[in-house]
Design brief:
Layout (H helix, E strand, L loop, with lengths): L13 H13 L8 H4 L12 H35 L8 H12 L9 H25 L17 H29 L6 E2 L3 E3 L6 E3 L2 E2 L6 H11 L1 H8 L3 H25 L1 H4 L4 H30 L20 H18 L3 H27 L1
Antiparallel strand pairs: 1-4, 2-3
Helix pairs in contact: 3-4, 3-5, 3-13, 5-6, 6-9, 7-8, 9-11, 11-12, 11-13
């Protein structure tokens, strides 16, 4: 790669040369990496600043990312969730699901439960990008964590550790919001009572169980009352499906950040292209990550949507505790419906949502990150 010259003719500009050298060291390549990549906005997800600065920048840009994503993607997310978890849509195609939602509820049906994911998305995406950026920058100060892992094509531990830390942080913040979102999309409410009966998605047998049946207009007040009288039980309900959420998020973010890292090092001409580069990261890399993690997303929706679980062990025990074991749910889904109709139910609208929403959100994220850095 030719070095730029200054006005005197032959010597490379010292500042840009230093940036290129540092970027080359960080990205584990013997050839210089364009300076724009070292700024992170045009390529990598985190820069070479202090861990505090990178974490703050990730927090701000992540919150903006989180606001854009549900605005663009919520209708497709609603279609996906209903196909996965609502008995009325169990055998429908994507087109039939769209038609039924529109006929029954109009356009409002596609934005049912919009507020919780909007608030949650801003919160958990701010946390995940902040955690990844801060962890990545901190690891960059430890030489052993910047050494490429054997037989990985240059992948560094700092990327993997940053992704796993971000996954734990995101799942911890997202899980209660996601629980409320899923139940709101399905027309279920969120305050626990002892008197209702529900029907599973795999059988018509009605059994008396605890369920959440207070209208959303009263949810805030009753949530406060529930927290003051039984905080542990209330928090436990809101974190139903946390195990599946964590597994899903680790697969999703691990794949996403690793794919972005490879893209920055092997196809910098793509990821540094304005608009196209950010959309590639958000649209392509994130959607491939969803392809890896989607079975856990389906298990999460199943666990969160049914008060005594769609997948249960013994229907002769009507007061049994909900089945929340992620891998047992996955096994039952596979046994009863197979991989495509079980694990990847609703993947079409889910992948479409990811491609459009994450692509558009990453364009805004990258622009804001570049703007703040300059």
């Amino acid at each position: 790669m030719a070095q730029p010259n200054n006005d005197n003719g032959n010597q490379p500009q010292p500042v840009e040369n230093a940036m290129m050298s540092r970027a080359s060291l960080v990205y584990g390549s013997s050839k210089p990496v364009p300076a724009i990549i070292s700024r992170a906005g045009g390529g990598a997800m985190a820069g070479a600043g202090s861990s505090t600065y990178e974490a703050f920048l990730g927090l701000v840009c992540g919150a903006v990312f989180g606001a854009v994503s549900p605005l663009v993607g919520h209708p497709l997310d609603s279609i996906k969730t209903r196909m996965q978890a609502e008995p009325a849509f169990r055998g429908t195609t994507v087109g039939q699901t769209v038609q039924l939602i529109y006929q029954r509820e109009g356009l409002r049906g596609f934005y049912r439960g919009f507020v919780p994911p909007l608030v949650g998305s801003m919160a958990f995406r701010a946390v995940l990008f902040s955690t990844y950026s801060g962890t990545y920058a901190a690891c960059a100060q430890i030489p052993i964590l910047e050494q490429p892992l054997p037989c990985t094509g240059g992948l560094r531990p700092s990327v993997v550790l940053g992704a796993m830390a971000a996954a734990v942080a995101r799942a911890s913040v997202e899980s209660p919001f996601d629980y409320i979102k899923v139940r709101s999309m399905l027309g279920q409410s969120i305050i626990l009572t002892d008197t209702a009966a529900t029907t599973t998605a795999t059988t018509s047998t009605t059994v008396p169980v605890k369920t959440w049946k207070v209208p959303p207009s009263s949810a805030v007040l009753l949530f406060y009352q529930s927290m003051t009288t039984a905080p542990v039980a209330t928090i436990g309900q809101l974190y139903r499906g946390f195990g599946a959420t964590l597994w899903r998020t680790m697969g999703l973010l691990g794949s996403f950040f690793i794919l972005v890292d490879y893209s920055v090092r092997y196809i910098p001409e793509v990821v540094t292209t304005p608009v196209v580069g950010p959309f590639f990261k958000g649209g392509i890399c994130a959607t491939l990550g969803w392809a890896v993690a989607f079975p856990f997303e389906t298990a999460k929706s199943v666990i969160q949507s049914d008060s005594h679980s769609i997948i249960h062990g013994n229907s002769n025990k009507p007061q049994q505790q909900p089945q929340q074991d992620t891998f047992r749910v996955l096994y039952r889904l596979y046994k009863e419906r197979g991989i495509v109709r079980g694990w990847y139910r609703g993947f079409g609208p889910g992948a479409s949502r990811s491609f459009v929403a994450n692509g558009a959100s990453m364009i805004v994220y990258s622009w804001l990150q570049d703007y703040i850095r300059t």
